[in-house]
Amino acid sequence: MIMITGHVGAHGDLLQQQCGNRRRHEMSMTGTHRRPTRRGVLALGAGLALAPVPVALLLGTGRTSVRQPPAVPQPRTVRKFRATSASPVPVPPGWMAGVLRKPIGVNFRRGGRGGQRGLILHVQEGEGSLFERFSHPMTRSSAHFWVSQAGEIEQYVSVHDRAWTQSAGNPDWVSVETSGFATEPLTAPQVEAVARVYVWGAREHGWPLEVTDSPEGRGLGTHAMGKGAWGGHACPGTLRARQRDTVMDRVRHSLLSSRTP
């Protein structure tokens, strides 16, 4: 054994360098300087092949990329609007609700009504709406209501105004023209429509539930009952005049049904 004491100096440095060189030579001969690896097994067809796999991957210490699942689309929010009911349009005074209002601009007198005795039944002696005819200044006639054979109702003049229909009977009576001819009875829809007009008049203006044949009476009358003072017409004819009782039965039934709880 050699013991070295004290300061070695340059000889000591040379000795350390020689030892280091020898150590590196031994490592190069034995191959101990190579980094350790692991071998993975990969399946290739029917055989096996060995491939180096990093240790960090096998040990789970390395960072690996993880595929994120596709984003699930979120449902679209549908904004719901609350339905609001429109305010009903007010019906002008003297006009019937639920019928086609077609006011004419001529051939009637504003105001001039002396009373509300009832409704006078007329026959058109023709077919089709009378709006165009009553709107012509040369016609010199009009009516408050018109009823088609299908039961459609048009109103041309407010019942607070005087229509030019039955001469001396105009101040106290409301008039309704019915499509068709005096030789034909009212159709079933016409009977119902005339009854509707009368029900409205009974509720709004106090028309009595009766048939009349006198200009001084009240109720459902005819143009012919006014004789010469009303123009001397046979309107609406015997067939339609006799149907007034049927119309009044429908009026009573309608009013009774509306009062039944």
From TrEMBL:
Signal peptide: none annotated. The chain crosses the membrane at residues 41-60. Keywords: Membrane, Plasmid, Transmembrane, Transmembrane helix. GO terms for biological process: peptidoglycan catabolic process. It comes from the Bacteria. InterPro entries: Amidase/PGRP_sf, Amidase_domain. One of its GO terms (molecular function) is N-acetylmuramoyl-L-alanine amidase activity. The keyword Oxidoreductase does not apply. Residues 105-237 form the N-acetylmuramoyl-L-alanine amidase domain. Pfam families: Amidase_2. This is N-acetylmuramyl-L-alanine amidase, negative regulator of AmpC, AmpD. It comes from Streptomyces clavuligerus.
